[in-house]
Amino acid sequence: MTTNTAPPRVLTVAGSDSGGGAGIQADLKAMLALGVHGMSVITAVTAQNSLGVQGYWELPADAVRAQYRSVVDDIGVQAIKTGMLASIELVETVSGLLADAPAPVVVDPVGVSKHGDALLAAEAVATVRERLLPVATLVTPNLHEVTQLTGRTVTDESGMLDAAKALHELGPRWVLVKGGHLEGEAADLLLGPAGETHWYRAPRHDNRHTHGTGCTLASAIAAQLAKGQDMPEAVSNAKAYVTGAIAHGFALGSGIGPVDHFWRQR
Q1: Annotated catalytic residue 35
Q2: 3-class DSSP state for residue 82?
Q3: What whole-number distance in Å separates Cα of residue 67 and Cα of residue 102?
Q4: In the annotation, is 127 catalytic?
Q5: What is the number of structural domains in the chain?
Q6: Catalytic site includes residue 210
Q7: Is residue 34 part of a domain?
Q8: pLDDT band at 231, cuts 50/70/90?
Q9: Which one of 6, 16, 113, 136 has the fewest beta carbons within 10 angstroms of its own beta carbon?
């Protein structure tokens, strides 16, 4: 009998999506598709489907802390990804845990769902800025989240660099500003140490079934980092994976369907 070597391990700290398209469920699917072992710390449970978020319930901070310590102290991690944190208390709890994280931390600063439903208390935004972003290796805001975190409204690609610089000043080592809400091709901007910049471009697919895109991209980047890729390469490969997942997104329920995490395997 032989013992197989474990694949790279990635931990997601996020909320559960009962519809399976975003959150913990999307994270674990993306991690599996990209060849890493996904593990989870659940921060909140949502009642959610293709039409929106009908409600959510936070887990106690002690439960979040215990899940994290159980995984990190025994199994270990090569990358960590955060998503929905919901409240000031949970943002503070997770930020404290990540202050001495043993691996790169990818922060998806989830503020609202694809349907526009709030997933972060308004009063917690300042805590994300002050406590969570400084412990992030990478932060991956969309343009709505850029406005929420910096007060800046980005209307074109020229504004993405200024927004990335404003976010970089808040403490993360790298910033990926996602331009998916702009017209034209899907362009994202990565800003790193010493002003290093990389643009990533992909064709925009005529498919409205894009639920879980942000969660999936952040998880894909974390998976690539866990496999030893540097940040620009990890973002490039994750972007290619998510672009295909969007192209293959499928209808589910009566509203917005999910991206297809297993499009390559199919």
Answers
A1: no
A2: strand
A3: 16
A4: no
A5: 1
A6: yes
A7: yes
A8: very high
A9: 6
Helices and strands, counts by H and E, the chain: 8, 9
Domain of 99, in residue numbers: 9-247
Q: Give catalytic status of residue 215 as yes or no.
A: yes
Decide: helix, strand or coil at residue 8: coil
Residue 207 in any domain: the answer is yes
Instruction: Give the strand pairing for 9-17 and 174-178.
Output: unpaired
212-234 average pLDDT score: 98
**What per-residue confidence (pLDDT) applies to 111?**
80
- Please, where are the H alpha helices in 100-247? 125-127, 143-150, 158-168, 213-226, 231-247
Catalytic residue among 212, 216, 227, 239: 212
Residue 265 falls inside a structural domain: no
Q: What are phi and psi of 80, to 5 degrees?
A: -130, 140
pTM: 0.96
24 inside domain: yes
Q: Which of 216, 170, 217, 168 is nearest to 194 (CA)?
A: 168
